[in-house]
Amino acid sequence: MKVFRIFSPLAAAALAACGSAAGPGTATIQDFRAAAPTSDKLAISQNDGDSPQGNDASDSSAIAQALTTPDCHPHLFVRTHEIIGRVNRHFAKLLHHVEDLIEDNPLTNGETKTWENVRGGIDRKFTMTRTLNADGSVTFDFELDLASVPASGSPSFVKVMWGSITHVGPAAEDKDAGAGQLVENKGTVTFDFTALASVKTSERARGQITDTFDNVHDPDKGVKRTATVVLTNFTPEEGDGHGPRNGTFSWEREPSVGGKLKFDDTVTLFCLPNPAGLQSDLTAVSRWYKADGGQVHGRSDARATGIELPDGGVDTWMGVTCAKGQTTSMPAEGFWLMKLEDSTGATDPSFARSAQVGVDPCDPVFGDVPILANNSKDYDFSKSFTEITFPNEW
Q1: Fewer CB within a 10 Å sphere, N or C end of the chain?
Q2: Cα 111 from chain centroid?
């Protein structure tokens, strides 16, 4: 929604586990390919059916338009799904080059391998360097460079993506050695969309996204993927009425179990009388899990503080949404509430609304549901990301 697009910035993202050789000696081409950053490794998800390539810009804009109301309707769980699709879509802008390049044999061998070719007037070069660490883990540093093909002379390459992945444990294809052993992949990746736009003039996204990730494959419990994502002067390709974003979000998911996302940002609330365009500090928390019967039960809470009113007062905006649905689609929101609270926690009756569809749309496992009357059941936003939980998390 235009007035309060809680999850309009990107934000997004984490790398999934990738098999890379952890033993001594020179790695094979397959080891490098297994460690390369690709959409299936980086894509974040909320539901089992979320696409690694994300939604397209028109879908995202349509969602944003549908959510635009004069009432600051939260639609928080919808926005959790929207940001996931938008993160994946922007990552794919660069990752598709890597995926295409590594299908061929590299131009150089040894512990540094380079792939390069030209497509659509863009010269693309992807380089990976393997380092065997003293503890037996293996680190792959990587860099993607792009250049417009000149009419004559050598191309001027621009670095558009870089980072590293450290693999702990046996290689993914080394099944016998890896039986019953924990495998971990961790590292950092940075996407620079301003640099991309300097090569591809049609690119509209700007700024950077840096993702610090840690993915653990436990032989008994399954997979846990976590990430801290930092947005630096970021604007998605479809634009953002709030302007470039500098925000941080933390994400965790255990496929077929559940997940959580916490987003911190500074935004201008367009839905309230705010002619000076003053900004407020926003925190949004989303949690979900796979319940018995295969449904996804979820809840999202949001708070914006420092809202200056025309009469000089300062209020806090609070919102909550509950949802239940199947694992392969966005769960339908069965309850929403939004309100303004003054410094005492009392609700402003002129801005207090809620609605409910069905019976018990809010799973009690997520705790008390906020009420319009007062702040007695408000969500506790002082919790750190590690203190935020979902059922069956390990």
Answers
A1: C
A2: 31
Contact 236, 86 (CB under 8 A): yes
- pLDDT for the residue 203: 95
Angstrom distance (rounded) from CA 79 to CA 138: 37
CA pair distance 384, 394, nearest whole angstrom: 17
Closest CA to 281 of 321, 300, 308, 299: 308
pLDDT band at 357 (very low <50, low <70, confident <90, very high): confident
**Model pLDDT for residues 110-122, shown as the tens digit of each residue:** 899 999 999 999 9
Q: Does pLDDT of 90 surpass 80? A: yes
Mind listing the pLDDT tens digit for each residue in 183-196?
Answer: 888 989 999 999 99
Cα–Cα nearest to 191, from 57, 82, 83, 94? 94
Domain boundaries, the chain: 29-387
Longest dimension (CA), the chain: 71
* Amino acid in position 249: F
Calculated CA dihedral for residues 199, 205, 206, 208, nearest 10 degrees: -100
**172 close to 183: Cβ distance less than 8 angstroms:** yes
Residues 6+ apart with CB under 8 A from 33: 102
| 276 class by beta-carbon count within 10 Å (0-12 exposed, 13-18 middle, 19+ buried) | exposed
Residue with tokens 């408000």: 378
Q: What is the rounded average pLDDT of the residues 345-372? A: 89
CA distance 303 to 318: 5
- What is the identity of the amino acid at 138? V
- Give the whole-angstrom CA distance, residue 170 versus residue 394: 22
